[in-house]
Amino acid sequence: MGILLPSLVLASEFSELLHRADAVRSSDRAAFDKSLARLEALKGEANAVERAHLELLLNYQKVIRGDYQSALGSASVMFDQVQEPQLKYRSGLLVANIAALTREFSLGLRFLESALELREKIHDADIRHGGDVVAGNLYNQYGQYALGLEHAERLLSDAPSARNRCFADKVRFEAMSGLGHLVETRPHILTSIARCSEQGEVLSANAIRSVLAQRWAANGKVRQAIAFLEASLPEVEATGYTRLIGEYRALLATYQLELGNEKTAEMHAVAVTELKGQDSGSLPNVMARHVLYRVALGRGDTRAALNEYRLYAEADKARLDDIKAREYAFQLSRHEVAQKNQSIELLKSQNQLLRLEQEVAHKEQSNSQLMIALLFVLASSLGYWGWRGRRMHRTLRQLAQTDSLTGLANRRHFRAQSEALLAQARQRGRPMSLLLFDLDHFKQINDQCGHATGDWVLKEVARVGRVHCRPGDVFGRIGGEEFAVALVDCDLGDAEIIAERMREAIAVIDGRASGCPLPVSASVGCVATSVSGHEYETLVAHADAAMYRSKVGGRNRISRYQTASATPVPVPVRIESVPVAAAPEAMRAS
């Protein structure tokens, strides 16, 4: 017994250290690293399951340190090889998180779906709930807010621990914000923030604060939102988490500019652009570039404004491409699941066919008729699933090119078509014009009459605008209430005639049909290649400047771009709702 005692003591210490390291991995990095170092020294005394558990925690450590590829490979192998359900479940969720960070969206969704299939086999409630947190965070990040909210509500209804309740609240508030639902500003959301702080989950607490601040700003409480964000900024910067720091700074830059504090707005925006390790297409970077463009425009520095607009356009295009990639990956994942189910059904049909063939062998008198019927069933099944596959591919292509609300070309597709038309116009030596128009006081329609009425107005604008488009023209919705029309073989004078017809058609839209008495009108900017050249970004920048002249000139009018105009006046900034990056918090919960 004296010989075995040291081994038993070490085994007990190893198991205790494993659970201790697991408990602090997202709240106390120093204690986590120290525990892992001790576990490495003792792993020779551990059993196979404990060594696999240690390998999982080492993969978490790699992710925290930014070694994504090594962690991705190791966790993928673990998911394929390990048999213990909880470790397999958690390793699959970890792969899904890492793949979201490395933009391997299809891979991440496949592992997420595979891990969630094991959910009912997980008896430990905390680990099972961790899967709901990961799924909710990732679905929010992929823009599938309804699924994110579904996982958060399921977790909250299952008596979670205080830590998992903190994560679930964060997922829930982000999903509600993404769906456009009213985010509660009563004590409940403040209680959630306090709960996360008590658990040491600083990232989650400040992510919820960001949602609340955006809600206040949307309701006109901009100064309150600024004070709230500035009070938490030191704590956010202490985390070293680039995305959350960028988000806070970008919101502060946007709100300060809205109040006319250009120097403070510029300071926050520059801080965002200088963050290390930030993706150029992230929403905070897009917002910061937009602020710097407006600041330069307000100072009358046309050269700097054009350069900042170019950087803003490049960042925004990268962000939109990333969003489309996530949407496509999600649709492709759903398509693969459907194909998998179809394959299962087909195999069942084939097995049924084999059984029937065996029966036919014993019934010679009806053999021919049964074989014909069976072949017909099989051919019909194959034809049906082939038709379903082609239809799904057509749907995916349409989703990638079309704005789902209005049916117009989305921003990415409008740009691609316009650049192709501009190249043709340059080659043929033919004129081309661009109209950019923005609905006046659209936020009032949304606030006073509701988002359903706002959606109705947008669809009506798309409908009346199509009437005045000619064959070959491209009509797109490129922002919330912003539309653009590329006019082929059209000089500036003819473009202004078409623009006037569209403006008049929009002005007679009667919002009372949807229960809203507010008028509908648009401010239009008009440019042509004869003045602005054939570069798409330059045309859009000039059209934006012309549209702004319509805004400051009284709205509901048309302005053409002028190369020698007076010093521009700063344009009010449109504030976007910021989806909070979810993957690192989701990783902590898995």
From TrEMBL:
PROSITE patterns: GGDEF. One of its GO terms (biological process) is negative regulation of bacterial-type flagellum-dependent cell motility. Its cofactor is Mg(2+). It comes from the Bacteria. It comes from Cognatilysobacter bugurensis. Residues 430-563 form the GGDEF domain. It catalyses: 2 GTP = 3',3'-c-di-GMP + 2 diphosphate. The keyword Acetylation does not apply. The keyword Transmembrane helix applies. One of its GO terms (cellular component) is plasma membrane. This is diguanylate cyclase. The lineage of its organism: Bacteria, Pseudomonadati, Pseudomonadota, Gammaproteobacteria, Lysobacterales. Residues 337-366 form a coiled coil. Its EC number is 2.7.7.65. The chain crosses the membrane at residues 370-387. One of its GO terms (molecular function) is diguanylate cyclase activity. Keywords: Coiled coil, Membrane, Transmembrane, Transmembrane helix. InterPro entries: Diguanylate_Cyclase, GGDEF_dom, Nucleotide_cyclase, Rev_trsase/Diguanyl_cyclase. It holds the Pfam family GGDEF. SUPFAM superfamilies: Nucleotide cyclase.
